[in-house]
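User:
I study polymers; will you set down one protein's sequence and backbone structure tokens?

Assistant:
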Amino acid sequence: MPTAPHAAAPRGRTPSPRQRGRRWGEHGLAWAFLLPSLVVFALFIGYPLGRTLYLSAHANDLFGAPSKYVGLKHYTDLLSSADFADTLLTTALFTLLTVVPGVLGALVLVLLLENRIRGVRLLRSAFALPFAFSVASASVVFAVFYNPASGVLNGLLSQVGLGPIGWLTDSRYALVSVAATTVWMNLGYNVLVLSAGIGSIPTEIVEAARLDGASGLRLARSITVPMLGPNLFFLTVVSTVHSLQSFGQIHILTKGGPDSSTKTLVYSVYEKAFAYGSSDFGRASAQAVVLLLVVLACTAVQFGVLERKVHYA
């Protein structure tokens, strides 16, 4: 039986110089294709991460330049700081208030839009519209809504005899108000992803369920939602990472106030490094490393728990 002209040398036999040269050529070609991606990764991921770790282990002068090696002192100071504990708690609450309503709200809307009603295409476009807004423009719009003197929300409350509420100036409502803005901003993307997921469900499965008498909530619970498991898992992971990294709406609406009630971990990094003339890059970098660890931990837990449930559903 004829052998292939480029067959590898049998096991136990030394490759010929021609085979070794061809193997090195293949490896070189593979590295040549990988090189652009490796360069981009090193410049935009590797170097910033390494620089952050370096700064977190050093104190700095008034201009932010590293001046003295302090090891893990910044991390131990964070762990013993009550303010940092409050910041972590605020970050966790903000993430919970944005991820759960954002994903579940989009799921409810998509299931309602599956009903055969007039103008359903117009409604889908309307619910996907927030995806077209930037963080800055959406935050400015909601700042107008939340205005204590002339805002729409307090105007509606006055119509039913209720007093005005300081949506962004009262620590009891500020975090919820910023979270509601974030949910609205993410709603369009979530609706688009889940609508695409519903569109990919085989019609044969849905028709077979309808023939068995499934409809309405039973059809959604037994067929639609389980089939949307991968999409829901994807949105949960992406929404969690996005919420942990949220900055723009917090900066525009509350600047971390009032009384630090909306100061998340990302905003705390900004305050330490840049706000009010500060240049404490050492402590800011330590907080940034903690944020990275929190994101990695949340992602690992979600992949370990939710992905397994989706896989075995």
Notes: The chain has a mean pLDDT of 87.
